[in-house]
Amino acid sequence: RIEAQVQPLVPHLLAIPGCGGLTAAKVLVETAGVDRFRSSAAFAMHAGTAPIPVWAGNRARFRLNRGGNRQLNAALHRIAVTQ
Questions:
Q1: What is the tens place of the pLDDT at every residue in 21-32?
Q2: Comparing C-alpha atoms, which of 10, 26, 23, 11 is closest to residue 82?
C-alpha cells in the first residue's frame, strides 16, 4: 500500500535500482521538500553525507559527518549498498 501511495509523488525515485516503496517514502518524508535546500551540498549536509574537512599540520583530510538526519542517511545508504 505504501508503494501505491508514493508512486504518484516520486515515480523517479522508485525507478532507481535499490529504492523500494518504503525507502522512497522515507526519503520523501525526511526531505520535506527538496526546494528548501539552496544546493546539493546543503542537502548533503542535512542528510549527513557530506565529508567534513579536518586539518592536521599541512595535510587536509576528511572525516565522516556524524550529524545530520540519521534516518535520511540510512535510507540513502540502503540505496547505495543495494546498487
A1: 888 999 888 888
A2: 23
